[in-house]
Amino acid sequence: MSRVLVLGGSGWVGRAVVRQLVAAGDDVRFTWHTNERVAGSLPGHPLRVDLTCRGAMRALFAELDDDGWTPNALVHAAGLPAGLAVAAAGSPGPGIEEAIDLAVRIHVTSTITACNEMAARPLAGLRNVVIFGALDRTQSFPMPAHVAAAQGGLAAAVMALGHELGPKGFRVNVVALGLLDGGAADAVPPAQIEAYKRFSALRRVGTAEEAAATAVWLVRENRAINGKVIGANGGI
Ligand SMILES: NC(=O)c1ccc[n+]([C@@H]2O[C@H](COP(=O)([O-])OP(=O)(O)OC[C@H]3O[C@@H](n4cnc5c(N)ncnc54)[C@H](OP(=O)(O)O)[C@@H]3O)[C@@H](O)[C@H]2O)c1
Fold first, then answer.
1. To the nearest 10°, the Cα dihedral for 42, 48, 54, 55?
2. In angstroms, how far is CA 169 from the centroid of its own chain?
3. Domains in the chain: how many in total?
4. Which structural domain, as residue segments, surrounds residue 180?
5. Is 30 close to ligand 1, i.e. is its CB under 6 Å away?
6. The ligand 1 atom nearest the CA atom of 102
7. Is residue 171 a contact partner of residue 155, using CB atoms and an 8 Å limit?
8. Residue 157 CB less than 6 A away from ligand 1
9. What is the pLDDT of residues 141-190, one digit of tens each?
10. Chain-centre distance for alpha carbon 173
């Protein structure tokens, strides 16, 4: 049994991850930010966190320490809320600077600080960290530049974290998803979704269950993949 911390457990993908891990017998704690209704309906132990706050990860791990609970695996399924992702795109005003800050904090800052907090705690054995993202290195897809920059930064971050933390037993990887049947995809215009389906090898969008199954496999089984971006998009 793994002790798994799921960031963004209340989200479309995160809730599927929480359910699948609990069903597999893992001990799961997960975070939520605004969606108390979904958080309260899930198995596992909910923790409220705002990843845009400086020190959020330090405070979260201190809370877990107080409970005597140290995760040996982490799944990062938090993402910039869809409204924020699109609202500031292309704007010359101050809104875009704020949106860039938030995107970097939610995707990049939280990833690096979570890894550092885990690495600072004594725990032997295999420790898989799985970060959901939206870009592998070959995809070309229209999306807001600030979201692309934050998500693209994850590829470089896990490459470095894989080296930094590999000697401590960590495997740190990004799972780059294609469009799914909900969540962040709700902000994507219908014409773009239709185009995606046309070019997808599966001729459809993915599901949260499929995305979660990839993360669950990595958490429970992965030994050799480290510092990589793994495309899990059905072939796009
Ligand atoms: N869905 C897709 O089609 C798709 C495609 C490609 C990549 N992805 C990637 O997969 C990941 C998950 O996406 P999703 O579709 O599950 O997104 P989602 O349904 O919008 O869920 C986002 C999650 O992030 C949390 N969150 C948002 N702002 C937060 C903050 N300030 N502090 C803490 N938590 C915060 C939300 O919490 P609350 O709901 O409680 O506020 C929620 O749990 C993201 O990295 C996304 O880019 C998704």
1. -100
2. 20
3. 1
4. 3-232
5. no
6. 31
7. no
8. no
9. 788 899 999 999 999 999 999 999 999 999 999 999 999 999 999 988 99
10. 10
Ligand 1: residue of 177, 179, 200, 236 to mutate (most ligand atoms within 8 A of CB) is 177
Among 30, 60, 75, 132, residue to substitute to test ligand 1 (most atoms within 8 Å of Cβ): 132
Single out the residue of 83, 84, 74, 75 nearest to residue 105, CA to CA. 84
- Token pair 């609202």 is at which residue? 87
Place of tokens 């294609």: 178
| Atom number of ligand 1 nearest to Cα 82 | 20
Cα of 183 vs centre of ligand 1, distance in Å, is 7
Look up the CATH number of the domain holding residue 38: 3.40.50.720
The token pair at 103 is 């995107």
* Chain segment 53-107, per-residue pLDDT in tens: 999 999 999 999 999 999 999 999 999 987 776 666 666 666 888 889 999 999 9
Mean pLDDT over all residues of the chain? 93
Whole-angstrom distance, CA of residue 204 vs CA of residue 179: 9
Confirm if 104 and 153 have CB atoms less than 8 A apart: yes
